[in-house]
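REQUEST
  id: r-88c1
  op: predict_structure
  target: Bacteriophage lambda Replication protein O N-terminal domain-containing protein
  payload:
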Amino acid sequence: MSMSNTAEIYKFPAPIPTQQECRMADLENGYLRLANQIQDALCIVELSGREFRVLNAIIRLT
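RESPONSE
  id: r-88c1
  status: 200
  body:
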């Protein structure tokens, strides 16, 4: 008794790309310079939503 390991392949249609508005940061209104070490720490710290917003406000205002 021989069993064949074959699969039927379905070709799904490609998604239709949507045209999005290209946005650039407005440097005249200011920007934040943040040390990579701080950004790396933000990626791994576990904060609640409120704690994260407070931390971002502190970073923004200092």
